[in-house]
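Key result, reporting period 2: structure in, sequence out.
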């Protein structure tokens, strides 16, 4: 039974983004399996649970994949449209995704919501840390790039408020410190110190 569940889930995951032929095969497999377990599928649909561990596992995996796809779409649209509401919904669907929280935090920072941005940055770092040191470094690299892309706009237009200024430089200092912790390279140590000074100078 376990092997069958694993195969079904893997097939669904591998073919989810395939072309017409792949989707047709997936639909045929799913339809055949659903007919075989029609009563339990119906029970799961209405109650969220069936009398079959296999059905619960397969349909639970389906729901998880669908939730992930919906969240990805919301985040993609939120990033393109700079829509904070869509980004927030994506984070709510996948609260453990540190890339979502980092992007949402950057968008909040851009909007002048410094404290809210810091909250998301902290949550992103904690989420990345749960996956391991490598993920924490990746989060820092991506964050430095994303915040760096904002620099020109802030240099031209200035900051909306002191909170935005401090959140911006504090986060850069923190991310460079994370990079230094992982690499012990002097450049990252110096950058962290530089941005701490910049944060202290915010008015």
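The corresponding designed sequence is given below.
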């Amino acid at each position: 039974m376990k092997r069958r569940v694993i195969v079904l889930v893997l097939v669904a995951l591998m073919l989810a983004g395939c072309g017409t032929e792949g989707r047709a095969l997936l639909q045929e497999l799913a339809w055949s399996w659903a007919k075989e377990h029609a009563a339990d599928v119906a029970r799961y649909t209405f109650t969220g649970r069936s009398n079959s561990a296999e059905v619960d596992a397969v349909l639970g995996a389906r729901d998880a994949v669908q939730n992930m796809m919906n969240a990805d779409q919301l985040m993609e649209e939120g990033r393109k449209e700079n829509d904070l509401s869509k980004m927030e919904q994506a984070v709510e669907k996948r609260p453990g995704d540190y890339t979502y929280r980092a992007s949402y935090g950057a968008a909040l920072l851009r909007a002048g919501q410094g404290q809210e941005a810091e909250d998301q940055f902290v949550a992103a770092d904690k989420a990345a840390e749960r996956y391991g040191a490598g993920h924490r470094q990746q989060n820092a690299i991506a964050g430095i790039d994303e915040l760096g892309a904002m620099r020109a706009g802030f240099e031209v237009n200035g900051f909306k408020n002191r909170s935005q200024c401090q959140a911006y430089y504090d986060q850069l200092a923190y991310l460079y410190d994370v990079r230094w912790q992982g690499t012990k390279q002097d450049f990252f140590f110096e950058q962290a110190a530089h941005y701490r000074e910049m944060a202290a100078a915010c008015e």
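The mean pLDDT is 82. The radius of gyration is 22 Å. This case is discussed further under Risks and Mitigation.
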